[in-house]
Amino acid sequence: MDFEALAGELRNLRETVAGVTDTVLAAVDGIPIIADAADDIDPAKISALAAADLGIARQAAEITGKGTLNQTVVFASEGYMAVYAIGRLALMVVLGDKGLNVGRLLFESRPVIERIGSILAA
Tell me: the pLDDT tens digits for 13-63? Predict the structure, then answer.
């Protein structure tokens, strides 16, 4: 696995989208793969939380007949947590502050997810 390429993708997303503070890439079971996060962020805890969030949202999408889940976004008083499905094997978590431009994040994240999926599949 090309950890350097994965780290570059996470770093680039943080640097490209204003308000992104931390990113974590994890296996769908919640085991962290790599993180671009501050010291006070525990990638293991974030990965486990995101896996649970993704699992529940995936079930909701399937049960309601709304198709394949792409992402969830948690809007909180001090910022955001977005969780993106990368196929059925991995997930990407993006944490952002109150200044995060969610629309820009949604736009910029699509090609990042595709590239990460390719890196993981190689």
Answer: 999 999 999 999 999 999 999 999 999 999 999 999 999 999 899 899 999
Dihedral sign for Cα atoms in the order 19, 109, 27, 61: positive
Length of the chain: 122
Cβ–Cβ contacts within 10 Å for residue 117, how many? 16
Burial 50-70 (b: 16+ CB within 10 A, else e): bbebbeebbeebeeeeeeebe
Give the pairing type, strands 71-76 and 79-86: antiparallel
The pTM for the full model equals 0.91
Distance CA 38, CA 88 (A): 27
Q: How is residue 68 annotated by DSSP?
A: S
Tokens matching residue 60 = 């909701």
